[in-house]
């Protein structure tokens, strides 16, 4: 049960950060702007989840 919960959490994180940060598919590699966005998105998520583990992406 915990593994499934962690998998769902990871899937939500990947989807949210990808949708928020990656919009230009003209190049195979991510731009530095996209990389920074993903890092900030993950950091924001980890900060929130460490303070309130039950509130996944409550925005």
TrEMBL record:
Every Tim10-like domain range: 3-49
A GO BP annotation: protein transport
Presence of keyword Protein transport: yes
Keywords: Chaperone, Disulfide bond, Membrane, Mitochondrion, Mitochondrion inner membrane, Protein transport, Translocation, Transport
One Gene Ontology CC term in the entry: mitochondrial inner membrane
Localization, UniProt: Mitochondrion inner membrane
Oligomeric form and interacting partners: Heterohexamer.
Record-linked InterPro entries: Tim10-like, Tim10-like_dom_sf
Membrane topology reported for the UniProt record: Peripheral membrane protein
Family annotation (Gene3D superfamilies): Mitochondrial import inner membrane translocase subunit tim13 like domains
Family statement drawn from the similarity comment of this UniProt entry: Belongs to the small Tim family.
Domain remark text: The twin CX3C motif contains 4 conserved Cys residues that form 2 disulfide bonds in the mitochondrial intermembrane space.
Role according to the record: Mitochondrial intermembrane chaperone that participates in the import and insertion of some multi-pass transmembrane proteins into the mitochondrial inner membrane. Also required for the transfer of beta-barrel precursors from the TOM complex to the sorting and assembly machinery (SAM complex) of the outer membrane. Acts as a chaperone-like protein that protects the hydrophobic precursors from aggregation and guide them through the mitochondrial intermembrane space.
Tree of life domain: Eukaryota
Name this protein carries in UniProt: Mitochondrial import inner membrane translocase subunit
């Amino acid at each position: 049960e915990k593994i499934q919960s962690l998998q769902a959490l990871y899937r939500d994180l990947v989807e949210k950060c990808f949708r928020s940060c990656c919009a230009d598919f003209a190049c195979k590699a991510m731009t530095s702007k996209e990389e920074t966005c993903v890092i900030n998105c993950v950091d924001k998520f980890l900060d929130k989840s460490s303070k309130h583990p039950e509130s996944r992406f409550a925005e």
